Amino acid sequence: MAGAREAHTLAASLRRRGRKVIVSLPAAERAFEPFTAPVRIGPFPSKEAMADWMAAQGVRTVIDASHAFDVEISRDVSLICKVQDLRYLRVLRPPWRQSRQDIWLPYRSIAKAAQDVPAGERVFTNTGRATLNEYRGFRGDVLFVRQTQLHDEAAPFAFAHYVFGTPPFSQGGEESLFTELNISRLICRNVGGPASMSKLLAARRLGLPVAMIERPQTPAWITRVDSVNEALAWEANA
Asked: Which controlled-vocabulary keywords does the entry list (predicted)?
């Protein structure tokens, strides 16, 4: 199950081991680069549809490297594996930790963070198009939404504006962007990892507050590791 950057490395590494690998990706924009294995793109309409697809593919082991906030995917696939006695592993990198120099405002949801934005503020977010409905109650002036793939779709709200760019993004580049757009606040989800850390370092340097959306809890029955190397070791020791 893909959606996080780790899925690319896992798929390539497992194929080099001679494993038959198939990737399930919830949306095309979740791919950071082309996969080296066959890919199914799109959400499953139901848990039963996911189970049927897995059975048709002859799946015996699932390594779940979906996005940290794709909780429905992880919940459904882990339950399917539990019922059908399939091997399951969740790969979930550690979350970011706040330093003394950071101004983080903890939130459980994007909707609440959007509602709490004071009038007149100019906000930057990278939570993606799929989350835009959660900004319906946004009370600021402008919401700049990062997009890493070009498209011509209009934003659903007058206050929302797309900002296109190609990763990786450097700290200096983020500082320049936030200054140019006169950003006063960020809204981010705590996905962890170094790839997206540059915007937080830029916010720290500029003294900007960050509304940080906390991760959902991982169910207790799920076997979890933090890294690709740990996942590959788990698979090798089957």
From this structure: Cobalamin biosynthesis, Oxidoreductase
Angstrom distance (rounded) from CA 197 to CA 195: 6
Distance CA 105, CA 15 (A): 42
Cβ count within 10 A of residue 61: 15
Which CATH number is 6-94+217-236 given? Answer: 3.40.50
pLDDT (mean) for 66-76: 94
Q: Is the pLDDT of residue 238 over 80?
A: no
As a whole number, mean pLDDT of residues 92-98 equals 97
CA nearest neighbour of 1 among 45, 52, 46, 44: 44
pLDDT, average across residues 142-149: 95
CATH numeric code, 103-213: 3.40.50.150
Where do the domains of the chain lie?
6-94+217-236, 103-213
202: left (phi over 0), alpha (psi -120 to 50) or beta: alpha
